[in-house]
Amino acid sequence: DNVSVAGISTFNDRLHISSTAPVLKFTETDNSKDFFIVGDSNKLSIRKNTTAGGNVVQEWMDNSVLFRENVDIDADIDVDGHTNLDNVSIAGVTTMGGNLTISNATPILYFIDTGANPDYHIKNNNGYFDIVDQTNAATRLTISNTGELTVAGNANFGNGVDVTGNANVSNDLDVDGQTDLDVLNVAELAT
Predict the structure, then answer these.
(1) How far apart, in whole angstroms, are the C-alpha atoms of residue 112 and residue 132?
(2) 143 CB contacts (<8 Å, ≥6 apart)?
(3) Phi and psi, residue 36, nearest 5°
(4) Percent of the chain's residues with pLDDT above 70
(5) Would you say 53 and 36 are in contact if contact means Cβ atoms under 8 Å apart?
(6) CA 65 to CA 63: how far, in whole Å?
(7) Would you call 55 exposed, middle or buried from its count of C-beta atoms within 10 A (0-12, 13-18, 19+)?
(8) 28 and 40 in contact (C-beta within 8 Å)?
(9) Would you say the pTM of this structure is higher than 0.70?
């Protein structure tokens, strides 16, 4: 019933363990954690400390694998198919061969400058496209859901501005240099 081997055992073909919950135990004699490979309830588990201890790796019948602890991978990961990830932290360059889709009630893409301020983010704010200076909590540019562009601060255009419709100026209009006007209608005092 019981076999005790004090040295190395060599098997030329297979090692067969038969039970309702077969266990292969790895005991470390230096008081470190012990590990078990357990077949139970149609799944294969790698456990630590005891046969009923926490699963480190667990595989189900449908070929999915569950890692119960952190996984450190020192090489590439190749994923074929759809993958859902809750949280991803990437410390380096990310290269994508397709589209990047951000889905949320208010999707935001952050641009954090680790060497200087301000930091920015762009977002879809209920149909409005905003460029936000998040360091100073100021929306710098907005495109409304009707296409209207709003610039909160001064706008400098280096190559001219073409206005094909009416221009409404609510404050002073300061023109430096020569201005050619085809038709000028002045409703109040002009000086």
Answers:
(1) 12
(2) 128, 129, 149, 150
(3) -135, 140
(4) 93
(5) yes
(6) 6
(7) middle
(8) no
(9) no
**Six-digit token string for 62:** 């449908």
Q: What angle do CA 53, 56, 58 make, to 5 degrees?
A: 100
Euclidean distance between CA atoms 27 and 89, whole angstroms: 35
Closest CA to 124 of 112, 140, 109, 138: 109
Residue 39 has a pLDDT of 85
Cα–Cα nearest to 144, from 129, 131, 122? 129
Portion of the chain with pLDDT greater than 90, in percent: 27
Distance set, CA 42 to CA 19, 49, 58, 60 (Å): 13, 21, 11, 7
Phi-psi region of 41 (alpha: psi -120 to 50; beta: other; left: phi over 0): left
Considering only CA atoms, which of 26, 145, 53 is closest in space to residue 36?
26
82-134: pLDDT as tens digits: 888 888 888 888 888 888 889 999 999 999 999 999 999 999 999 999 999 99
Residues 142/159, Cβ–Cβ less than 8 Å: no
Structure tokens at 140: 């710098």
DSSP-derived pairing of the beta strands 138-143 and 108-111: unpaired
Q: Pseudo-torsion of CA 121, 139, 147, 166, nearest 10°?
A: -150
pLDDT digits (tens, 9 = 90+) for 21-43: 888 888 888 877 788 888 887 88
